[in-house]
Write a structure and sequence with these properties.
The protein has one domain: Arginase, Chain A. Helix content is 41%, strand content 9%. It has eleven helices and six strands. A six-stranded parallel beta sheet has the order 1-6-5-2-3-4, sandwiched between helices. Helix 1 (2-10) packs antiparallel against helix 10 (298-308) and helix 7 runs parallel beside helix 8. The protein is globular, with a radius of gyration of 19 Å.
Length: 350
């Protein structure tokens, strides 16, 4: 996150006019309880004070001050919600957010409190929003958010991720479409390992704009996990910066078209240090309306190498992936066909 902030600064994207930095705040316990159970919040508090223990079955250990740290992440996302809802800014970006795996009663997948889910509940409670879009492009299925609102028709949840047969958390299949009044409002597009820009964007460009326009949201949240990038240490997709620019650029346009620009961009996963800051810098630049040049600033490269012990990336942009396998493309087409049978997503005449 610090490398992302430093790169955004080094590229001159934050100029004090089109984009500014706002300080976060801590989330209150009452706000955290909009999504999480009281017993679980107490467990986090106790383990945070003693500085140890597990918050799930093993992936998410507690550490000293973890309650305060993750409450600050949540508070930053809620502060961002207030800024866009009060029209102080059209868009906001919290790179520390996107902790989409935590469930009401437990941590999961490195996530202690689920700031996207709390943000959705907060927007519904404080601003009485009736229609929200949550798009999740992390390589791992955003299970905490999707199942947390599985029966809620206010939330259109669209989730692109590597197929759960091959990766944590093993969920997010096309037949999981919501329940009760929310049937058809939860949309999963699982991708085969090795899928790149072409397969991802075929699915995204086909299904996302028509679904978002049909729902006509009052605000849009985008979880922009960077672990789908080619070479990530925990996932097996082959996306490049091109996909992230296309996705955030399209959601930016849809936000202006449908909901006065109100878009909250969140971070998420990403485990190869040379990739994540570049992905998030370009995603943020898309919201600002800037296209930075391809150079990596020397001062940032020095910071990167000193703090990571790795060679700094040479360029900001990637060359889009080539050689997409027929199997990856066929899988996306098959998923789109299945989703049309499940929820009838195709616009009239398509």
């Amino acid at each position: 996150m610090k490398l992302t902030y430093d790169l955004i600064q080094a590229k001159g994207i934050i100029d004090g006019k089109e984009a500014q930095v706002e300080g976060p705040r801590m989330a209150t316990e009452e706000e955290i309880l909009l999504f999480h159970d009281q017993d679980y919040v107490r467990l986090v508090t106790r383990n945070s004070e003693k500085g140890g223990g597990l918050l799930d079955m093993g992936d998410t250990p507690a550490f000293k001050g973890c309650y305060e740290a993750t409450s600050l992440v949540v508070g930053a996302s809620l502060q961002a919600c207030d800024l866009i809802m009060n029209d102080q800014y059209a868009h906001a970006f919290n790179p520390s957010g996107g902790l989409h795996h935590a469930h009401p009663d437990r941590a999961s997948g490195f996530c202690i409190f689920n700031d996207p889910a709390i943000s959705i509940a907060y927007l519904k409670r404080k601003y009485d929003l009736k229609r929200l879009v949550y798009l999740d492009i992390d390589a791992h299925h955003g299970d905490g958010v999707m199942y947390g609102f599985y029966d809620d028709p206010a939330v259109l949840d669209i989730d692109f991720h590597e197929n759960g047969r091959y990766i944590f958390p093993g969920t997010g299949y096309p037949d999981e479409t919501g329940s009760g009044p929310a049937k058809g409002m939860k949309v999963n597009i699982p991708l085969l390992p090795g899928s790149g820009d072409e397969a991802f964007l075929e699915g995204f460009e086909s299904i996302v704009p028509p679904l978002v326009r049909k729902h006509h949201p009052e605000a849009i949240l985008v979880q922009c996990g960077a672990d789908g990038h080619d070479g990530d240490l925990l996932a097996h997709l082959r996306l490049t910066t091109h996909t992230y620019q296309e996705v955030v650029g399209t959601m930016h346009e849809l936000a202006h078209e449908l909901c006065h620009g109100r878009l909250l961009l969140l971070g998420g996963g990403g485990y190869t240090l040379a990739n994540v800051p570049r992905v998030w810098t370009l995603a943020f630049a898309s919201l600002v309306g800037k296209v930075p040049d391809d150079s990596i600033p020397k001062e940032w490269a020095t910071i990167f190498e000193k703090s990571t012990g790795e060679a700094a990336p040479k360029k900001l942009f990637d060359i889009p992936t080539e050689g997409e396998s027929d199997k990856s493309l066929e899988e996306v087409e098959s998923v789109l066909m299945q989703l049309d049978r499940e929820i009838g997503w195709k616009p009239s005449g398509v």
